[in-house]
Specification:
heterodimer; A: mainly alpha; 2 domains; 3-stranded antiparallel sheet; 3 strands; B: mainly alpha; 4 helices; elongated; PhaG_MnhG_YufB (chain B); Multisubunit potassium/proton antiporter, PhaG subunit (chain B)
């Protein structure tokens, strides 16, 4: 079973994406989508060494809502900073210690950091214990680290990793 | 009514996309410039896509969901490219307004040294 269907979640996602691409719910398209969703993970199995497991689907939805709100707020923050006096900006690099272990969770976190207020993830240390983040305007380093750890890392840890 | 709503969305989108690009011109170093295009544009393109979905759904009597895919791919790729750009900039040690972090990666330092030697 594990070898025939290595990534059930990925299969469903790919089928969903296929249906969106063809923009129809014709039964034939659903079968074709599932077929593609089954074959692509089989062919690209080397890219997916670990199985993707979502432990709390509801929390994932909740987390996505929080992120969407943060993205909208981030846009206003960044717009204000850009339109203000660029000379007043205090950009800084901040190192954030990571507790996440799985690759998917770390890349998820890096993506979220880049999409939310005034921060871009810049570099992951070789041993995956620190994520370097560039902040556009930084008042308080500790505050930024706590926000990222509690607002984004903690839910991700609960969603993707067994606690 | 719907027309007004769609126009408002398109205008918002255009304004945010413009501000994002303006950031490229106004901000002063490479690292801060990355912020403009990665963020201000997500909302910009986002609202343009919502406008497009609404327009085609109501004018062609079929739900148009291609835009969902565009949004999905945009949200996946924009941060990744920003990350790679930033990483490359750090590797080249481009000048920054912020204090550059010390190189944590031991593996990169010797390589850079050797490439410099070859140039000399």
């Amino acid at each position: 079973m594990r070898r025939l269907l290595p990534h059930p979640l990925l299969t469903l996602t790919l089928a969903g994406i296929w249906l969106l691409l063809v923009n129809s719910l014709h039964p034939g398209q659903i079968v074709l989508g599932l077929l593609l969703g089954w074959m692509i993970p089989l062919i690209t199995t080397q890219f997916w060494p670990e199985e993707v497991r979502i432990h709390h689907p509801v929390r994932l939805l909740h987390f996505i809502c929080i992120i969407l709100i943060d993205i909208v707020l981030a846009n206003f923050t960044v717009a204000r900073l850009i339109l203000g006096r660029p000379g007043n900006l205090k950009p800084a690099f901040v190192s954030i210690p990571l507790e996440l272990k799985s690759d998917l969770a770390i890349s998820f976190l890096a993506n979220v950091i880049s999409l939310t207020p005034g921060t871009v993830s810049a570099r992951l240390s070789d041993d995956r214990s620190y994520l370097l983040v560039h902040a556009l305007h930084l008042n308080n380093t500790d505050e930024l680290v706590t926000t990222i750890k509690f607002r984004y890392e903690k839910p991700l840890k609960e969603i993707f990793e067994q606690c | 009514m719907l027309e007004f709503f769609i126009s408002a969305l398109i205008l918002t989108g255009a304004i945010f996309t413009f501000i994002g690009s303006l950031g490229l011109a106004r901000l002063q170093d490479f690292y801060t410039r990355i912020h403009g295009p990665t963020k201000a544009t997500t909302l910009g393109v986002g609202s343009l896509l919502v406008a497009s979905t609404l327009y085609f759904t109501f004018h062609e009597d079929s739900i148009s969901l291609h835009e969902v895919l565009v949004t999905l791919f945009l949200f996946i790729t924009a941060p990744v490219s920003a990350h790679m750009l930033c990483k490359a900039a750090l590797h080249l040690e481009l000048p920054s307004l912020a204090k550059l972090p010390e190189s944590q990666t031991n593996s990169t330092a010797p390589q850079r040294q050797s490439s410099k030697d070859q140039h000399d």
